[in-house]
Specification:
The chain is mostly helical. It has helices at 25-34, 48-57, 63-78, 83-92, 97-111, 116-120, 129-141, 144-201, 207-241, 244-254, 261-281, 286-296, 300-314, 319-324, 331-343, 346-402; strands at 2-9, 15-21, 37-44. It is 76% helix and 6% strand.
């Protein structure tokens, strides 16, 4: 439950007003006192307007929010601000209500003596295992400032790369969706009226026109059944995608589609290289780095691949040899990793690979968009043209016969 409170600071007597999330009023009072405040009043927040705003209109915590927060944490640590004060300041100056709630809970945990990494680990939907382990390594090595700066840079790179890939698919999806809607409307509203004229003319109907008229009859007579079947199919697909096998199958499809496979494969290769570089640079062991990279790579095929690589490395195989056994890993990647192992510059090699594949993804996306647009225009033009020709030609013949 959310409680509002009024309190004063013990040192200066300054009045403080805020909110705290707790199980009950006693827990709320205890949490406020742990912040070094003297409680004046505490009451449950029953403001329906705020609750409605928070549950309906408030968006979740995005990657961009975490990027900004990580940069702010790094800056505050550089200014020698204490960890407790850092998260308290962030919670007081953040607009996202969901993130404010998380930051307040982290502040409370830190006040009780919990480490930052353990506190972050209590919010897996916001902070991945990769993020938490990076912070833990920073606590152990005394490099928290650098770690939060690394994480902000890393998440920013991944956010920009992933966003560009997703946005490249929005335009084709929108055009195809509009095309389908227009075609359905034509089959339901226009074709039936033209079909009446063609049938009443008594002329021989071409095969293509019969097909178009048959599809139109199907939509007119069984439209609701088809719509119900489509909805059921979509629900079934989403239910399948929630299973392990369904997700793995979908991930395999993404890596086998002719137009998209290069984009997706290079996106995951970039992510693997970038993750490994960031973790190894922070002092995390290569075994732990491989394990965490597999957990956050975002594709079941590469996740299973890295599990096998992890077992091979545990068995004594060099990282490069373990990678080279898999067809999904290009020869250039395993070869450069081998060079990194031999020269002791694994971090620099992985950083180079990450940047290389990021550029490759950008180029592939630009090329894909450049190809898709003209192909879609031609395909949509042909589809509409064939549909109209099949129906309008008999109409012209009727008009010619009447003339």
């Amino acid at each position: 439950m959310l409680f509002k409170y009024e309190a004063i600071t013990g040192a200066t007597g300054e009045k403080k007003i805020g909110t705290v999330d707790a199980l009950n009023r006693d827990s709320a009072i205890a949490a406020i006192q742990r912040r070094g405040l003297i409680v004046s009043s505490v009451y449950e927040d029953k403001d329906k307007k705020s609750l409605f705003k928070m549950t309906i209109f408030n968006k979740g915590i995005s990657t961009k929010d975490v990027v900004i927060m990580s940069r702010q944490i790094s800056t505050l640590f550089e200014a020698q601000v204490s960890a407790l004060k850092v998260f308290t300041l962030l919670s007081e100056n953040t607009q996202n209500e969901s993130l404010v709630k998380v930051l307040n809970q982290i502040s409370t945990d830190i006040q009780t003596g919990m480490t930052i990494s353990n506190s972050l680990a209590k919010h897996p939907k916001v902070f991945s295992a990769f993020y938490v382990n990076m912070v833990k390594s920073g606590e152990e090595s005394g490099k928290l400032i650098q770690v939060f700066s690394y994480m902000a840079d890393y998440l920013d790179r991944q956010y920009q790369l992933t966003s560009k890939t997703k946005n490249a698919l929005v335009y084709p999806g929108f055009v195809i969706g509009v095309f389908i809607i227009v075609m359905v409307l034509m089959f339901v509203m226009i074709i039936p009226r033209l079909a009446v004229i063609i049938k009443e003319s008594g002329q021989a109907i071409p095969v293509s026109t019969k097909i178009v008229m048959g599809v139109s009859d199907l939509f007119m007579n069984y439209g609701f059944i088809l719509l119900g079947a489509l909805v059921a199919l979509i629900i079934y697909i989403f239910s399948i995608l929630k299973t392990e096998k369904g997700q793995e199958y979908f991930d395999k499809i993404k890596l086998s589609l002719p137009v998209f496979k290069n984009v997706y494969s290079k996106l995951y290769l970039s992510r693997i290289s970038d993750n490994m570089d960031t973790m190894l640079s922070s002092g995390i062991s290569i075994l732990r780095a491989i394990e965490l990279t597999g957990a956050v790579v975002g594709n079941r095929v590469f996740e299973n691949l890295l599990k096998v690589v992890l077992e091979d490395v545990k068995g004594g195989s060099p990282f490069s040899d373990a990678l080279s056994k898999h067809k999904e890993i290009p020869t250039i990647m395993s070869g450069m990793v081998r060079v990194g192992e031999e020269t002791g510059s694994m971090g620099n090699i992985l950083k180079t690979l990450g940047r290389f594949y990021a550029r490759e993804v950008n180029e592939e996306v630009d090329t894909m968009v450049g190809l898709i647009e003209p192909l879609m225009i031609v395909a949509l033009g042909l589809g509409v043209g064939l549909l109209l020709t099949s129906v309008l030609m008999p109409i012209y013949n009727v008009a010619g016969g009447l003339g």
